[in-house]
Amino acid sequence: MLSSDPFSPRPSSGGGLSAYGWDTKLERSFTSHRAAGLIPARIIGVDRGSCDVITETGLLRAGTSLVGTSDPVSAPCTGDWAALRSGHEPELTALLPRRSVIVRSSASRSSHGQALAANIDTAALVVSIEVPLNLGRIERLLALAWESGALPVIVLTKADQSADPSTATAELTQLAPGVEIITTSAANGDGLELLTAALTGTVVLLGPSGAGKSTLGNALLGTQVLVTGAVRAQDGKGRHTTVRRQMVPLPNGGVLIDTPGLRGIGLFDADDGLQQVFAEIEQLAQECRFSDCGHDSEPGCAVQAAIAAGEVGERRLDSYRKLQRENAWATSRSDARLRAQREDHRKAITRSLRETYSFRDQQRQS
């Protein structure tokens, strides 16, 4: 039986797990788990050591110790599909392979990444136009989305609070060619019908606190399910009213994942995402005279020529360089951690062998 909690899932017309994205492909991949007496479940919220999951029969609380890992990227997260051992104390026994996952650099600035949501079809990047656009932050969000394998959609919120929404739309059209940009107002309903049509499958809302993610989510859900809060008038920043990622079915099909506001949007192993976001610079770089061109003062630099001609902005190149450096740093930290782990493993094996040989020598001498 489903919980009466307002955050608990409400089955849509599809019923059962199909309302949460379960399909014949997932069913085929689950054959061996069913043969072992396990049942499929989708994680809708995670706490330390346990999680809320939706199953064919309803909502359950399950342990995660059997699928726990020291790597936050591989740890269970909202959106994961899992094999569940039911009973008195339900426990996840395995996670199904992810088709997409949104990963950012850990907020602790460690060498780990952090999975924000898994098996996402559409990443809705929520941007308030009540305040000036933060283009660098939007580029970061786009890189995360493209790297994940999900389709990004930029959602401009609070259009009723902006004197000229079209200016923001035009600026973002240049920043993100090919990405759908939808201007909305949850207050008067503008753009919501168009947005509903654009958001398909499993949808995650990404953006900073105060951007209007939860308000937008409630508008899409048609009810006040997600907690909202006020923002500061001077900078448009809000408090973290959403404290964990949570999944709720959408009335017209698909599911919605609301996330806490992202204070830090660090990149983690996002080479492909950066190439997609800065495609025009990547393409121009191929025309530079030197393959290792730094796009500074080298002769025959196609990027600098485009800047001089007004085809590419200097800010755009600066942002590209900054995010490349950040991504390279995070990748090098991750590589260093993996090397250290391999070295620790090698040393442990060496110690074990030495102890074994020492024991054998003692046995022979005795």
Automatic annotation (TrEMBL):
Name of this chain's protein: Small ribosomal subunit biogenesis GTPase RsgA
Annotated residues for binding of GTP: 157-160, 207-215
EC number: 3.6.1.-
Protein family membership: Belongs to the TRAFAC class YlqF/YawG GTPase family. RsgA subfamily.
Subcellular location(s) of the protein: Cytoplasm
Residues that hold Zn(2+) according to the record: 288, 293, 295, 301
RNA-binding in keyword set: yes
GO-annotated molecular function: GTP binding; GTPase activity; metal ion binding; rRNA binding
A GO biological-process term: ribosomal small subunit biogenesis
Residue ranges annotated for the CP-type G domain, each copy included: 110-265
Subunit structure: Monomer. Associates with 30S ribosomal subunit, binds 16S rRNA.
Name of the top EC class for this enzyme: hydrolase
Keyword hit for Lipid biosynthesis: no
The species this protein was found in: Micromonospora polyrhachis
Swiss-Prot/TrEMBL keywords: Cytoplasm, GTP-binding, Hydrolase, Metal-binding, Nucleotide-binding, Ribosome biogenesis, RNA-binding, rRNA-binding, Zinc
One GO cellular component term noted in the UniProt record for this chain: cytoplasm
Cofactor: Zn(2+)
Domain EngC GTPase: start-end pairs: 118-263
Note on cofactor: Binds 1 zinc ion per subunit.
Function: One of several proteins that assist in the late maturation steps of the functional core of the 30S ribosomal subunit. Helps release RbfA from mature subunits. May play a role in the assembly of ribosomal proteins into the subunit. Circularly permuted GTPase that catalyzes slow GTP hydrolysis, GTPase activity is stimulated by the 30S ribosomal subunit.
